[in-house]
Design brief:
This protein has 1 helix and 10 strands; from the N terminus they run βββββββββαβ. The protein has one domain. By secondary structure, it is mainly β. The strands form 2 sheets. Strands 4-3-2-1-10 form a 5-stranded antiparallel β-sheet, with no helix packed on it. Helices cover 3% and strands 38% of the residues. The chain is globular and about 40 Å long. The longest helix is centred in the last third of the chain and has 5 residues.
């Protein structure tokens, strides 16, 4: 399934791209490796689950969605996991000052974080640690210096 970019940003500090991509079933926050050309993304270095457009699936169904990212499964999904109409929300990306982490804001509230050195990131859509990442951590969020320089991708 083709992905639609909901929002994309380029860090002027680390030369990384971050984007929220939606494939019609899930929204995933991606953090890319540095690219000195702002029109070309590097390879994906980190990702973070942001939402399902559908109800959480049975864990036994995960394999049937491969090779695409599967929707989050019951037992891992928080009560905030389902977002049927993502375009009804305002999404923003805010960079860390070193450009190695990005936080996705949903209607002004921190929602999901992708960090270069942490597999799966942190998301308010996740209830239990697992293959989709980790539940939201205020401690991790507050431990990062936010306010890096970024601009929307063209």
């Amino acid at each position: 399934m083709d992905e639609e970019l909901i929002i994309c940003s380029y860090s002027e500090d680390s030369f990384r791209h971050a984007m929220l991509a939606d494939d019609g079933l899930t929204g995933i926050l991606y953090l890319h490796s540095p690219s000195e050309d702002p029109t070309k993304t590097g390879k994906v270095e980190a990702d973070c689950f942001a939402y399902n457009r559908i109800e959480p699936i049975d864990p036994k169904q995960v394999h049937s969605y491969r090779p695409n990212p599967p929707p989050i499964a019951r037992g891992y999904a928080s009560k905030h996991a389902v977002c049927r109409r993502p375009k009804s929300h305002e999404w923003r990306l805010v960079w860390s000052t070193d450009g190695n982490a990005v936080v996705l804001l949903r209607d002004g509230d921190p929602w999901a974080m992708a960090l270069r050195n942490i597999r799966g990131g942190f998301s308010k859509a996740i209830q239990s640690q697992g293959p989709w990442g980790s539940p939201w951590s205020m401690e991790a969020y507050e431990g990062i210096s936010w306010g890096g320089r970024g601009r929307l991708c063209k």
